[in-house]
Amino acid sequence: MVIHPQSYPQPVCIVLKGFKNKGFIHSTSTIAQNICSFMISHMNKPFRQTTVADKLIGELDRALNNIFCKQTSSRPFPADIESSDAPLSPDQKRQAASLMRVNHAGEMAAQALYQGQSLTARDPSLAGKLQNASLEEADHLNWCRRRLEELDERPSLFDPFWYAGSFTIGMAAGIAGDRWNLGFLAETEKQVVRHLNDHLDRLPENDERSRAIVEQMKIDEQGHADLAEYLGAAELPQPIKQMMKLTSKVMTSVAEKV
């Protein structure tokens, strides 16, 4: 590679001219040539390789942000689209808040689940699809948090527990293999859709804002289940499905009240 003096980076030229004027060097051409070649050859190289510790710190940062911080949604807030802010009675408000707290806890778990699954997925393309799906789940999380604030309520106090448990389960599903990973995802989303249908039946009829959020969440969750099956999800054994239902029942029962 030939680098002409007029193409040297300006800071390099200034430093080399200073050295030449002081008599430290007699020619800037060869030294500048070597410096510029070195800079260009290393320009696109990472400073160091990412380690396991880096990934763990990144996941911890993501977890703390999801649990304690408000995030920016990538899509519009469904409650602001074709829904009125109808007044709710105190009982209706409590009912809506308890169900949206359950939904928020579920989305907290979903975030952790997707992250755990993507970390241990064997196929890099599958890991990418899981991470993309987690972006939609992040929207759900933000929408539920915002609706809880509108209802003057807080998320579940057990959110850190839901996150940690789901992250561990997600990693285990990924370790089992990609087909089982997808099977776990498909069954999870099918159960979530059933929960959301139940919530639509239980939400106050005039709570259009909560209903708009849940309707969009249901569409997205069904899409994730369909995608997992399209990618070759394995059918989970019945005992595992029953265990998943039991775990979900415990979480929803607790989150609805605390």
Observed structural traits:
globular; Ferritin; mainly alpha; 9 helices; 258 residues
Describe the overall structure.
The structure is a single chain. This protein is mostly helical. It folds into two domains: 5-42, no CATH class; 52-257, Ferritin, core subunit, four-helix bundle (Ferritin), CATH 1.20.1260. The chain has nine helices and no strands. The chain is globular. The chain starts with 9 loop residues before the first helix and ends with a helix.
Layout of helices and strands, plus pairs?
Layout: H1 10-21, H2 28-42, H3 52-68, H4 90-120, H5 124-150, H6 159-175, H7 178-202, H8 208-230, H9 238-257
In short:
The chain has 258 residues and is mostly helical. It contains 9 helices and no strands.
How many DSSP helices? 9
Order of secondary-structure elements: HHHHHHHHH
Question: What percentage of residues falls in helices of 4 or more residues?
Answer: over 70%
Our count of domains comes out at 2
Low-confidence stretches: 1-8
Shape: globular
- Please report the distance between the alpha carbons of the first and last residues: 67 Å
* Rounded radius of gyration (Å): 26 Å
Largest sheet: none
Q: Could you tell me the strand content as a percent range?
A: under 5%
CATH architecture grouping of the largest domain: Up-down Bundle
**Mean of all residue-level pLDDT scores:** 82
